[in-house]
Amino acid sequence: MNFTQSNENKVQIPVVIIGGGQAGLTVSWYLQKKGIEHVVLERHQKFHSWRENRWDSFCLVTPNWQCKLPNFPYQGDDPNGFMLKDEIVEYLDGFAESFDPPICENVEVKKVSKTEDGYDVLTSDGGWQCEQVVIATGGYDAPIVPRYAENLNPSIMQMHSKDYRRPNQIPEGASLIVGTGQSGVQIMEDLVRDGRKVHLAVGPAPRSPRKYRGRDATDWLYDMGHYDITIAEHPDPHKALSQTNHYMSGRDGGKEIDLRRFVVESDISLYGSLSDMSGSKLNFLPDLRKNLDDADTSYLGIRNVIDEYISRENISAPEEAPFVKLWQPDAETTEVDAEELGITSVIWSIGFRPNYDWIDADVFDQHGRPVYNRGICDLPGFYFIGLGWLNKWGSGRFLSIDEDGRYLADHIEKSLSQDAVVAAE
Q: Disulfide engineering: 40 pairs with which of 17, 59, 106, 113, CB 3.0-4.6 Å?
């Protein structure tokens, strides 16, 4: 569906969805099914972050069977595998083609403002007026790079994981990767496989088993009801909301990432959290041993709950060998010289921050974080979707987005004025 508008005349429409990723289009699918007129505004092309913000060898770390978009489950023949980047985009494009959403691409939303009877949405292509607005832009707007990065010798190239695509982007020589979330460890492996020397600043990210006792760990956790726990039921909501994702890999059919093993089997060097840099000097906190141990504690904790479930349910499953720490740091290295080590590049993999500066509505707390209950704000007609732990662990992933989208669409239908709901075709 194509919309036209001018800067002088705002288009009236019941619902505006901002963001054309899987979250925004999931809400669109349900609104279309209900016959509710709406528009999806996307500043790039639909599913832009999947097309443009992932490296070439990127693949899912959750099994394909967890891809459950509305009326469009995973379409391939490898439900226990892990789709590569191009396969993910193909799956998402297939979902969009299945219902032809009313999306306007290459339209940037400049401002969303509360009005007396709804919301004004100012875009690069004119304005819209709506009763209700759904923010589906995700939380990955601004790449995080610390201020002290400005002090690094400019001869050393710096890149954020958002811009990494393949090893040949990186100059010859060693690389320092900062951060051990999903991006950091997978880019680390990508460079190691290319024969590069890698130095890794290890942060506090936890890690997870991949295959355990005959099945993928996520399969066990799903059967145990782990993914059905809501943020309201979680024993430590703050930890759930603030913790970095567990690192593991879907590459080569899926495997766990044990950094100690990489030290033993590959030519990588580990340090604690990066704390400062000046010229060619790099400074690290003395927390490498703690961060490795904490990651293993998380890893063993998941193994233990699976063991308990197997025992409690009297399930026949193969035994696993006890976990062994293959390597321990002899000492904590707190300063190195990048030039002496031949480090010619730094890849920042410490995450993103959302940017909501364009939203002029009372939906944030004192720290600028959106406040909602299952995506529904106290301000009538204002919603968020696609954020981690919006309701469950899978809210920011493929697993629970269908449930979240359906819930918001039901609420939108009940909240709209009667003349805003049109008969479904």
A: 17
Task: Mark whether 178 and 71 lie in a shared domain.
Answer: no
Q: Is residue 6 part of a domain?
A: no
pLDDT 10s digits, 23-81: 999 999 999 999 999 999 999 999 999 999 999 999 999 999 999 999 999 999 999 99
Give the CATH number of the domain where residue 41 resides: 3.50.50.60
Q: What is the mean pLDDT of the chain?
A: 95
Within its chain, how far is the Cα of 316 from the centroid? 35
Residues 86 and 135 in one domain: yes
Structure tokens at 325: 């720490």
pLDDT given at position 419: 57
Question: Amino acid identity, residue 218?
Answer: T
Number of domains in the chain: 2
Residues 281 and 392 in one domain: no
| Domain end (from 297, 324, 348) | 348
pLDDT of residue 88: 98
Cα distance between residue 230 and residue 394, in whole Å: 10
Task: Please tell me the predicted confidence (pLDDT) of residue 423.
Answer: 38
Closest CA to 201 of 103, 268, 271, 99: 271
Where a domain ends, among 306, 330, 348?
348
Q: How confident is the model at residue 418 (pLDDT cuts 50, 70, 90)?
A: low
Residues 309 and 379 occupy one common structural domain: no
| Integer Cα distance of 196 and 181 in angstroms | 20
Name the residue range of residue 396's domain: 11-141+354-420
| Residues 310 and 199 occupy one common structural domain | yes
Distance, in Å, from the CA atom of 232 to the CA atom of 230, rounded to the nearest integer, reads: 5
